[in-house]
Amino acid sequence: MNWLRGIAIATVLVQGCSAALYGQFSDKMKNPKEPQYAFKNPQTLQTSIDVRDAFIDRIGEDGFYCRLPAPGIVVADTPLFGEYEKVTDTLVTPDWKQLKPEESAVFYNLAGAGATEAQARELFDVYAHQWIVVAETVHWWENCKNLTLKLTPYQRELAGVRVALAYWKEHDPEVVAKLTIIAAALDKEPSPVPEGQDVPTYFNQHYQKDSTGKDYLWMQAQILKVALGETPERTVIETMNQLK
């Protein structure tokens, strides 16, 4: 019976190691640029974890599972206000206090003339910690299914936006309402797209390359506008099925 005992012990050790690894990459990733910053911002970290997990649970209800553990979350500034890093399998999401002055100014402007910090931060939190976390978790799922190489950056982003839009319409329509306001304000900004070029081409050339946060928000607004204008409205399962 010693061999049975040996197998049992080995099983427990493997399970313990797996649990430790899952915990490390799911909730306790350290930001190499600002070590342990996430632990100084427990609310930002926990909010992002909750949003990520709620979305993964929701698509799981429709049978969309991933062989990978949930992506880790790092609280760190990024000019895109949130992104999925394929190499490290992490979602990077910034805290309001980490934003550079020119980055926070974007949300003051979106909140309108005379906006308070609370109003600007509310828009930022909706965009970064609700909308972007879900949209980027979609990209994690695409990576799990090896779908990213089959799409252009614009197509990939539109697919993620469709899923996120369907999810938030179902889960919390107020998020969609606030995003619509943000998109409408950004749509009034001058277009950076050169004459004779369309948005998909511009997006493919500039996405995650030399775009500023405001440029990225403008491109996101154009994609959101396309998704909002599509009829009939798609459900979560319909948008996820279109990723296959």
Question: Would you give an account of this structure?
Answer:
There is one protein chain. This protein has 244 residues and is mainly alpha-helical. The protein has one domain (31-241). It is 61% helix and 5% strand. The protein has 9 helices and 3 strands. It has helices at 2-27, 42-61, 101-111, 117-144, 153-171, 173-187, 199-206, 213-229, 236-241; strands spanning 72-75, 83-85, 90-93. A 3-stranded mixed β-sheet has the order 1-3-2. Strand 2 and strand 3 form a beta hairpin. Helix 4 (117-144) packs across helix 5, helix 5 (153-171) crosses helix 6 and helix 6 (173-187) crosses helix 8. The radius of gyration is 20 Å and the shape is globular.
A few lines on this structure:
By secondary structure, the chain is mostly helical. It has one domain.
- Sheet with the most strands, sense and barrel status: 3 strands, mixed
Please write the string of helix (H) and strand (E) elements: HHEEEHHHHHHH
**DSSP helix fraction:** 55-70%
The stretches of 5 or more residues where confidence is low (pLDDT under 50) are 1-39
User: How big is the Rg?
Assistant: 20 Å
What count of domains describes the coordinates?
1
Number of strands: 3
What is the tally of helical segments? Answer: 9
Strand neighbour order, sheet with most strands: 1-3-2
User: How would you state the average pLDDT, rounded?
Assistant: 82
The percentage of residues in β strands lies in under 5%
Spatial gap, N to C terminus: 48 Å
Return the structural class: mainly alpha
